[in-house]
Amino acid sequence: MAENSGLKLVDRDDHGIDRAFRADVLEGLRQNPKALPARWLYDDAGSQLFEDITKVPEYYPTRSEREILEARGAEFAASIGPGRAVVEFGSGSSVKTPLLLEAIDPAAYVPLDIAGDFLRAAAADLSAKFPSLPVYPVEADFMRRVELPEAVADIPKLGFFPGSTIGNMVPRTAVDLLRTMRETLGEGSQLLIGMDLVKDRAVLEAAYDDAAGVTAEFNLNLARRINRELGGTIPVGSFSHEARWNDDFARIEMHLVAQGDLSFEVAGEGFTMVKGETIHTENSHKFKRRSANTLLLAGGWTPVQRWLDSGERFSVVLAEATIPRTAP
Ligand code: AVJ
Q1: What angle (nearest 5°) sits at the alpha carbon of residue 229, between those of residues 223 and 234?
Q2: Which pLDDT does position 129 carry in this prediction?
Q3: Residue of 52, 65, 284, 314 best suited for mutating to test ligand 1, as the one with most atoms within 8 Å of CB
Q4: Whose CA is nearest to atom 13 of ligand 1?
Q5: Which of 84, 78, 43 is nearest to 188 (CA)?
Q6: Ligand 1 centre and the CA of 180: distance in Å?
Q7: pLDDT at 10
Q8: pLDDT tens digits, one per residue of 204-250
Q9: Whose CA is nearest to atom 12 of ligand 1?
């Protein structure tokens, strides 16, 4: 417990500027090609825009995953069993969690999130729905090993990581996270993880460039956030949103594309871009059965079961942290 309590999750300078945000933005804009860590897309406005994205007709992942969670409860119950402590990584305001909790009869629920306000609100909601289920929210960065509450120390764990958030990480970071999750949860634990699937390029690109322009707003919001929080002068109207399938890396990339030669400042530092140059703002990796299995195995998790939605667009995989043995 002590390791998490008192932890300062956002470090601000005398002007109230988030130091990590500024450092990441300046470093990313100095690079060629320019790239910013996707986590900064999710301020309050960005989180709301993502919620809106999940409702546009082209964005299938949320609906497909929900269909799996709704349809496969009995199979989850059979493979997971009752009495586990469900540890959700980046719980946010998840609406998917009740579907899982209803299905498996868990002993406790431990939502982990860096956004404390979101976390406590979601925990309160859940307690109202499941009055007899002990809920232990932990405000923490799940990219690092988390010390779980003493109350769940002796209970077998089920990690829950829906949404294909694992796909937002490049493979080496995804593997680091999977290994960290294994350390957090312990040997003998299970992991239920959403992983989006490789499919027709046009379907993927439309899912990340919806006709109503919600994803474009989500992407452009990052430039607005930089202007707002870091004293930026990015001419947001001179950028357009692009969703691009990278077939070599099996991922959708979001870019902000400069519509002309332009210059701007961020935190007092000047930057120039030429027409067509981009700022790469997010990756969303897509998987096939074997690539999903390889990633999980590299992270120390043995896949044991896999479910698809009826449209075969999305997968939910159950994996186990089995004891490493000497292998040939
Ligand atoms: C919720 C982070 C997994 O990659 O599909 C949606 C984020 N970005 N549209 C995804 C996102 C643009 C989403 N994740």
Answers
A1: 35
A2: 93
A3: 284
A4: 165
A5: 84
A6: 22
A7: 80
A8: 999 999 999 999 999 999 999 999 999 999 999 999 999 999 999 99
A9: 208
Residue located nearest, by CA, to atom 5 of ligand 1: 284
* Assigned token pair, 237: 């109207």
Percent helix, strand, coil in the chain, to 5, is 40, 25, 35
Closest ligand 1 atom to Cα of 218? 12
pLDDT, mean of residues 302-317: 98
State which ligand 1 atom lies nearest to the alpha carbon of 41: 8
pLDDT for 157-196, tens place per residue? 999 999 999 999 999 999 999 999 999 999 999 999 999 9
Measured from CB, residues less than 6 Å from any atom of ligand 1 are 53, 61, 163-165, 167-168, 208, 215, 218, 282, 284
Eight-class DSSP state of 135: B
Ligand 1 atom nearest to CA at 196:
5
Answer yes or no: is pLDDT of 5 > 50.
Answer: no
Per-residue confidence (pLDDT) for residue 210, from 0 to 100: 98
3-state secondary structure of 3: coil
Cα-to-centroid distance, 9 and ligand 1 (Å): 23
Indicate whether 1 pLDDT > 60.
no
Q: Which of 27-31, 66-70, 270-274, 320-324 has the lowest mean pLDDT?
A: 320-324
106 and 82 Cβ atoms separated by less than 8 Å: yes
Contact indicator for 299, 178 with CB cutoff of 8 Å: yes
Which residue lies with its CA nearest to atom 3 of ligand 1? 165
Ligand 1 centroid to Cα of residue 298, in Å, is 23
Give the separation between CA 208 and CA 222, rounded to whole angstroms: 16
> What is the Cα Rg of the chain in Å?
20
From atom 2 of ligand 1, which residue's Cα is the shortest distance away? 165
pLDDT > 70: percent of the chain: 96
Angstrom CA distances, 145 to 115, 168, 308, stand at 17, 19, 30
